[in-house]
């Protein structure tokens, strides 16, 4: 599947490509941004790749503009992929009615309930179709060295995709992740809509706190959460549940949950700690 | 004049304050952002101040979110002031009709032509009223150590305010400044509107290229312009005219015009070189 480059923007010595391609997972065109660091622009350059999954309401543009990942990625020599958060324009009734379900809120699952199963397949898109297409098209990307991170709904995505696919990602980190969606209003609404209320087993298969109980072997995770984050206070994120579950499974030693004093849920928070998450990925990617 | 703090946001170890105050220069409420670095939050901390002037259409929010001055300012211990670009809500007819005149386009002049002379006094606001109010209210700001920078229309503002007020600012730098507005469509439209077509002397008093001819003594300026900047290509910026005028006046030795390959006019460009401009200011501010 080929990509159309709709813009090329110089950024921190590298290039940010605005891309568009037809997705068979979603049945729509999908937009995304790809940051190629200076190291990828040299002849024969081959760089590892960090997937960044965005939160509710966002496209790949928000973090490209406000997240400050290019700063660290340029220094470490990482490509960064910023996908969209859902299909757009499927014309499903109600698709654009809420900020936390439908457009901009794909939750990185493959929906099984009608009508959302028509194209809300962000799990397949992010874990299979998109990386395969990118690595086939962009020879400067090293598809054998891939890490993942994300924010809020995208932090949920990063944790679950990592835990469901051992070996696929060299590392995982998250900013203010929805770490236990089956026990949080956002997650419950989304999973009810995409899977149905009676599909409790399927809900658990996309819940980081449930998944970490099953994890075998060592586990290293970096998580930042701001103590001034209203969604944290409202118990939408529940990172402590994730830690507790890992502890019960004897897998918490490598989990670094940092509660950052006063930080909120915004890109100001993300930008502040973006360098740390890029460094975390870079360390595990061997750069 | 007192400030109302409408939000306090943690950013790079410091605090970004969203402020509002009544301005006698403009006759309106004015919003701005003030970044206090971690060094200012310590008891008795006193930090130098960098004024950042925004470009057409912007408020102080755009650069606070996308310019990443906080990154360098946090490391160097500089406060950053992000003012608005014009009065808002004066209800002058036509005020909101164009992106390059009226709201969001105050051009850092005091208008003399009716009806704009009613409140379009951004020159007085930025050079007098705002710093006096800030330094009276925020004791952590060192009003004796102030530098200035800006982008596009704000680059014009930074250069002209610096050149018109010897000693007021310890240093100046600019991103893609409108460096010779009397010879560029944007500047001609603005000066015609704010001063009148027949006020050529007044036009020259707000033109960096004209002002640099009169500058006495040494002059150090850092200017970044992207070679992929469409406004540069369209001759809205004309930085070479500024260099030529300085050269004729024997004052060009300390001007560092960097033409940055492929960079455009956006905040991606600004973010890439923000650290350099903060370091430039910090060096001249003695930190």
Automatic annotation (TrEMBL), chains A, B:
Pfam families: Esterase. The active site is at residues 152, 229, 265. SUPFAM superfamilies: alpha/beta-Hydrolases. It catalyses: S-formylglutathione + H2O = formate + glutathione + H(+). GO terms for biological process: formaldehyde catabolic process. Keywords: Cytoplasm, Hydrolase, Serine esterase. Its EC number is 3.1.2.12. Signal peptide: none annotated. Transmembrane segments: none annotated. GO terms for molecular function: carboxylic ester hydrolase activity; S-formylglutathione hydrolase activity. It is found in: Cytoplasm. One of its GO terms (cellular component) is cytosol. The keyword Chloroplast does not apply. The keyword Acetylation does not apply. Belongs to the esterase D family. Serine hydrolase involved in the detoxification of formaldehyde. This is S-formylglutathione hydrolase. It comes from Karstenula rhodostoma CBS 690.94.
């Amino acid at each position: 599947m080929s990509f159309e480059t709709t813009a090329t923007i110089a950024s921190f010595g590298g290039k940010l490509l605005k891309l568009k391609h037809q997705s068979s997972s979603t049945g729509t065109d999908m937009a995304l941004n790809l940051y190629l660091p200076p190291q990828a622009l040299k002849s024969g350059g081959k760089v590892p790749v960090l997937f960044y999954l965005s939160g509710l309401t966002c496209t790949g543009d928000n973090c490209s503009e406000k997240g400050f990942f290019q700063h660290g990625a340029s220094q470490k020599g990482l490509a960064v992929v910023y996908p969209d958060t859902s299909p757009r324009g499927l014309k499903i009734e109600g698709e654009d009615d809420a900020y936390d379900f439908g457009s901009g809120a794909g939750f990185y699952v493959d929906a099984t309930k009608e009508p959302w199963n028509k194209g809300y397949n962000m799990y397949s898109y992010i874990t299979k179709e998109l990386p395969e297409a990118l690595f086939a098209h962009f020879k400067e990307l090293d598809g054998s060295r891939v890490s993942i991170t994300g924010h809020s709904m995208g932090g949920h995505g990063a944790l679950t995709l990592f835990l469901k696919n051992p070996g696929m990602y060299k590392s995982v980190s998250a900013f203010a992740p929805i770490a236990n969606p089956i026990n949080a209003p956002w997650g419950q609404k989304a999973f009810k809509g995409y899977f149905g209320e009676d599909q409790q087993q399927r809900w658990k298969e996309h819940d980081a706190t449930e998944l970490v109980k099953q994890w075998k072997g060592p586990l290293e995770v970096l998580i930042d959460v701001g103590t001034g984050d209203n969604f944290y206070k409202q118990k939408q994120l529940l990172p402590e549940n994730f830690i507790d579950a890992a502890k019960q499974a004897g897998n918490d030693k490598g989990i670094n949950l940092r509660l950052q004093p006063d930080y909120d849920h915004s890109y100001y928070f993300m930008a502040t700690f973006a360098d740390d998450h890029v460094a975390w990925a870079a360390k595990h990617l061997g750069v």
